[in-house]
């Protein structure tokens, strides 16, 4: 594969800079490409051209916006092999999941194209009020303006699609700052935007560290919306910097899986939980981190789950047989290793104790844990799972809710009464019944409560976030 070297993408043109950010494969540390590093003048230029493009693009027809989105989806399909390989090389994600991510991104753009055609408002019955007699009212959904999209390393294509596609459908323009770990996927996407003749300035791509580039963009008064996916601490800081701008924040999770009394086919449940816990080395916002297991099933499930974890194929992410490869960096792998050691020192009992080699961490499964341990209370974002028994379903739901996060929860139960109880009581954005919490398809409303964030993704719902309501009252 050719070396992938990209400049900044501003106003439909490539801007080469002397300073470059070198990108290395986290699996073997081989150089795979580079991107130019934006300075303040580049940031100002991107803002200027995004604002100028918005003046024109906001008036494009719904049909035109849908056609752009369809063409982008088509080009993603044409380039699916190079995109999947690039995602694996720069993020360490196993190729089977990188390929799936590309397919999902194609669907996301297709969903957004469909929704663009339906963008409309609604009549308001003004005559229901005494003062509204003789008037008709309706509202339109109008574009919000220039949008900033800040995306993470773990889904460098599809999480970007969930920000860029709804913005185009809404008639907005975008400045995209991808993670400095995984900017090469963004470079390929910029090539696609140029190939489909997306008007210059509608999507601009700038590279650089969050402190230097991301924060300066967030502070700009010229932007109208900030959409960020990343850590809780960074999200809190960006929200403060954003001022009066609308902010959409997806700040991760500490997802729980509940396996209730009477659940059968535990082998199938364990196999699903293995994927939910360890795919992408656990670096998934809705990865299975906590498993609450009815005490009557504890021994049988643990035996199945631990044995399956021992058999996980870890290695080169380009191998089709590998479940997961490296973590994004040795720093992150060391951090996870430290959290495991802390839990063990605090009394956790290892059912399976992983070892670290550079950026690669093998699976760790713990029990006898408590909420004072980081592996239980924080987002571990690593191949680490804690299993805790419960005696009553109410106790399990209390433990699910004993978290600052609230994104997804998975509930296996054969009882309709417990299913309904979970739907009512779980403090999460999504409840997945009889499957793991890692379930997501791209037209569902995706987002959380509590510290998991603000707003919802999924084109039918995100477009509402990327537009404003303009009300009209007509006096007869």
How would you portray this structure in words?
Helix content is about 40%, strand content about 20%. By secondary structure, it is of the alpha/beta class. It has two domains: about 5-250 and about 450-475, Aldehyde Dehydrogenase, Chain A, domain 1; about 255-440, Aldehyde Dehydrogenase, Chain A, domain 2. The strands form seven sheets. The chain has a seven-stranded mixed β-sheet, with helices on both faces. Helix 2 (about 60-80) runs antiparallel to helix 4, helix 2 (about 60-80) runs antiparallel to helix 5 and helix 5 packs across helix 15 (about 460-465).
Spans where pLDDT lies below 50 across 5 or more residues:
none
The gyration radius over C-alpha positions equals: 23 Å
Find the CATH superfamily of the largest domain: Aldehyde Dehydrogenase, Chain A, domain 1
Class from helix and strand fractions:
alpha/beta
* Portion of residues within helices: 25-40%
How many β-strand stretches?
25
Mean pLDDT: 97
Biggest β-sheet: count, sense, barrel? 7 strands, mixed
- Give the number of domains: 2
Give the overall silhouette: globular
Number of helices: 15
Q: Remind me, CATH topology of the largest domain?
A: Aldehyde Dehydrogenase, Chain A, domain 1
CATH class type of the largest domain? Alpha Beta
Give the neighbour order of strands across the main sheet: 15-18-19-14-13-21-22
What amount of the residues lies in strands? 15-25%
């Amino acid at each position: 594969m050719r070396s992938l070297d990209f400049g900044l993408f501003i106003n439909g043109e490539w801007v080469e800079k002397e300073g470059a950010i070198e990108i290395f494969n986290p699996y073997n540390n081989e150089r795979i490409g580079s991107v130019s590093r934006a300075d303040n003048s580049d940031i100002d230029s991107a803002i200027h051209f995004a604002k100028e493009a918005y003046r024109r693009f906001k008036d494009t027809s719904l049909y035109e916006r849908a056609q752009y989105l369809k063409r982008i989806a088509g080009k993603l399909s044409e380039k699916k092999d190079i995109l999947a390989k690039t995602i694996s090389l720069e993020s360490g994600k196993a190729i089977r999941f990188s390929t799936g991510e590309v397919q999902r991104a194609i669907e996301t753009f297709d969903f957004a194209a469909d929704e663009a055609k339906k963008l409309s408002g609604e009549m308001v019955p003004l005559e229901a009020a005494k003062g509204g007699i003789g008037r008709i009212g309706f509202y339109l959904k109008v574009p919000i303006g220039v949008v900033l999209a800040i995306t993470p390393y773990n889904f460098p294509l599809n999480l970007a699609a969930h920000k860029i596609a709804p913005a185009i459908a809404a008639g907005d323009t975008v400045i995209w700052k991808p993670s400095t770990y995984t900017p090469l996927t963004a470079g390929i996407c910029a090539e696609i935007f140029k190939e489909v003749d997306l008007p210059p300035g509608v999507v601009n791509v700038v590279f650089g560290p969050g402190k230097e580039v991301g924060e300066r963009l967030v502070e700009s008064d010229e932007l109208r919306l900030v959409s960020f996916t990343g850590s809780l601490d960074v999200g809190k800081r960006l929200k403060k910097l954003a001022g009066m701008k609308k902010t959409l924040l997806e700040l991760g999770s500490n997802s729980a899986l509940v396996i209730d009394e009477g659940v059968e086919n535990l082998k199938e449940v364990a196999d699903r939980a293995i994927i939910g816990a360890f795919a992408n080395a656990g670096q998934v916002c809705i990865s299975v981190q906590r498993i609450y297991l009815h005490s009557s099933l504890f021994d049988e499930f643990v035996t199945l789950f631990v044995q399956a974890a021992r058999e996980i194929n870890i290695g080169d992410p380009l191998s089709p047989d590998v479940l997961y490869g490296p973590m994004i960096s040795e720093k992150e792998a060391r951090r996870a290793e430290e959290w495991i050691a802390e839990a063990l020192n605090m009394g956790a009992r290892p059912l399976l104790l992983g070892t670290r080699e550079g950026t690669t961490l093998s699976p760790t499964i713990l029990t006898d844990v408590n909420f004072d341990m980081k592996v239980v209370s924080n987002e571990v974002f690593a191949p680490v799972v804690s299993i805790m028994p419960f005696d009553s379903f109410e106790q399990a739901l209390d433990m699910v809710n004993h978290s600052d996060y609230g994104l997804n929860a998975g509930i296996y139960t054969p009882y309709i009464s417990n299913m309904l109880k979970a739907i009512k009581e779980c403090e999460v954005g999504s409840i997945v019944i009889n499957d793991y919490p890692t379930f997501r398809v791209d037209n569902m409303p995706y987002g959380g409560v509590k510290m998991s964030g603000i707003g919802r993704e999924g084109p039918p719902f995100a477009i509402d976030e990327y537009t404003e309501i303009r009300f009209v009252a007509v006096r007869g």
